[in-house]
Amino acid sequence: METSIWRALFYLVGIMAFAGLNAAYLGWCERKGAARIQRRIGPCEAGYAGLWQPLADGLKLLSKQLLVPQGVDGIIFRVAPVLAMIPAITSMVVIPFSDNIGARAMELSVLLLFALASIGMIAILLGGWASGNKYAIISAARSVSQNLAYEIPMLITVITVVMISGSMNLREIALDQQGGFWHWNIFRLENGHFLTMWISFIIFFICSVAETNRAPFDMAEAESELVAGFMTEYGSMGFGLFMMGEYLNIVVGACLTATLFLGGWDCPFGLTPGVWWFLIKIYILIFTFIWIRWTYPRTQIYRLLNLSWKILIPFSLVNLLITAALIKVF
Amino acid sequence: MTVPIHLRHDETFVLNLGPQHPATHGVLRVKLTMDGEYIVKAEPVLGYIHRMHEKMAECGTFAQFMPNTARMDYLHALAFNHGWALVVEKAAGIEVPERAEYIRVITVELNRIASHLLWWAAFLLDLGGFTPLLYAFDDREKIIDLLERVTGSRLTYCYMRFGGVYNDIDEEFITGTRDFIKRLRGRMPRLYHDLVTHNIILIKRIKDIGIISAEQCRRYGATGPVARGSGINYDIRKNEPYSVYPEFDFDVPVFDEGDSMARYMVRMHEMEQSMRIIEQALDKLPDGPVMGKSPKVLKPEAGYYYSAVETARGSLGHRLVCDGGKNPYKLKLRSPTFSNLSLYGEVAEGMLLADALAFMGSLDLVIPEIDR
Amino acid sequence: MSGYWSDIFTGSKSLITGLAITAREFFKPVVTERYPWEVPTMTPLFRGHIELIGNEETGEPNCVVCGMCQRACPSVCISLDGKKNEGGKGKVLTSYVLDFTKCSLCGSCVESCNFNALRFSREYNLASFDKNDFIMDLMKRLEDQNRCKH
Prior knowledge:
The complex is a heterotrimer of chains A (330), B (372) and C (150).
Chain A: H1 5-37, H2 53-62, H3 74-91, H4 109-130, H5 134-165, H6 170-176, H7 194-211, H8 236-261, H9 275-293, H10 301-329
Helix pairs in contact in A: 1-2, 1-8, 2-8, 3-4, 3-8, 4-5, 5-7, 5-10, 7-8, 7-10, 8-9
Chain B: E1 13-17, E2 29-35, E3 38-45, H1 53-59, H2 66-72, H3 77-92, H4 98-127, H5 131-151, E4 160-161, E5 164-165, H6 171-197, H7 200-206, H8 214-220, H9 225-228, H10 236-239, H11 260-284, E6 303-311, E7 314-322, E8 330-334, H12 336-347, H13 353-362, H14 367-371
Antiparallel strand pairs in B: 1-2, 2-3, 4-5, 6-7, 7-8
Helix pairs in contact in B: 2-3, 3-4, 4-5, 4-11, 4-13, 5-6, 6-11
Chain C: H1 2-26, E1 50-52, H2 68-72, E2 78-84, E3 91-99, H3 108-112, E4 118-120, E5 135-137, H4 138-149
Antiparallel strand pairs in C: 1-4, 2-3, 3-5
């Protein structure tokens, strides 16, 4: 592995650009997608088809005053939004975009990603607590219990994948699935894994929707109940950073799903693998996130926890046992 | 220096679901005493939009009060118009021609459908489903366009007069209404029931939430879909009929469970029944004048008069005291939502915050009607 | 426990139906109208603010300054003034001012006029930074309309 300064610089700039563009333009995609589902147009004034809208929003947010209310914990209040962005951008270091494109292929990249996700969760908790607002505290408490409950089935399903591939290195997991969609972990026709891997995929997908606080699991920012949840007291760039952090978490979640289950940069028919397949897959997954958000109402906090503890965890544990048994047998 | 949350001696804190809140439909303040996420005590505080309509009635003539009626419950303004017209016609003994009665029923029922559509949209918005709002507003826009052709206004109608209605309806309105009913009937099973009513997330969210017993309804005087969702079979259009309602064949949906799901289903079925009434009224529409004989300056005989109509939210009563002059002496409006909201304090105890908001949404509150 | 499996199956089915419905709606055309590039036409009975009706030939307002509209208005919006008609009976209108900031578009004025002097205009595009733009001089409006006609 080369250690030239150009490689580091290239990846630094590349990842920041990818993260920045995604954070900004995912907002545009979401608004346009939501608008089309609701049979209206969406942003169309700022630039052709509203493409300058994220820029306009960014400028607006930057020009507002960052209001720090009296009685907040000064340092934590200002640090929390930044802490929400950091794990998302840092996670992109280990994601394998293609055979040749990937900043670092660490031996424990899966573990790193989940550790960083927990930091993101702490950011929400700190943001809510430091605001000194009762709505924010309620929402932060809900969000912590939700994240905790959904990390467990997520990790169990990832263990399943790791067992099949034999390594925690994301690049090796992706390499293991090359060669056409029948090798992808979601189908996995060898060794009889195809019976249960699609259940793993569904569980993982539901958990990533819950981990990123997206509807129907968006208790933390439930607009109609808690005004804006933990973000109530944040104006201007604080709010902007939380929103960008949320979109980047979605991107990281989609990248992880694509790498673990859908073969990374592989073409479905095994022909020409490349980074464009990876990008197509993550954008299809992100579109599904958006589609789900605008279709369903919000669940209740105890139903949400019920779903996790009573349905997802038993299913994922059974899945784990079956997969382990199949690996042992074949 | 951080300011911790002030806990009272029994470890509860007070959360203010303030007058400015996305989920209270209007300016309603609810003082919630909470223990974690559970509500220990809920106390609605009213009066933020009290505009003294009843006093305004005393300061102007009978006809000058008509625009005020629409501003109270802006979602079912025509029913409020109708109620005021009925009580003054009763006081002054004015006859209303047949065609005008039929037109009144058609427009009131169209407005009822529009009100229920908006209730559905706002209820789902409270629960976090943003898309059904737009689908409901698509249908509601058609109704409002139809009513705009006839009355000239889109939301606050001042259409009824003592003795009839202001304008006649034309052929385009009749064909437009029939087309609309066909369209809504086509869209209902898919966009309303498949997408929302059968959705497991919604069912889990509103079933067995906010159970109101029939006994509680009687004590607080709740009427309308709130009472019919708890098993009380009372609808002013059937039990104390007025206008030409006895000539139509329609059912009154009643569900026994008393939870939010029952109230939801009552309103969805009511929309269907309103469509039936409109179809029958359009078929039977007689010809004739739309305005009866009424004196220029109305001076009813002194006395006490009461009349009630069924609005989308319950039974609206007008109690009019006349003293023989050209202004009313006193008008008291019995607002249905006021009685419905009084249930809230008792039923919301022990609920989770999100459940309490879902329950509030299912009560269909319009705060300007409470505060008048 | 019996509801466990049925919940999962019917629940998943309802969720997928929901997704299918929104997917279908995604491909249907837009129902909104791009105002102000696509302007709606108002129906004939639409209630904009009131305006004076002028005589067909002379262009003078039909109003005889009886004051019925002023008395019928619940919100005290109308103030009108007239002077004696030299060489004839009755009064001639000199000024008619509508305070639109208080008007509730109830129609009592239009209805109470026996001389066909008032009707609803179809103005809906009213927005301004200045309150005085809404203290409307209806005689001036009638003169402008007459001038545009000829």
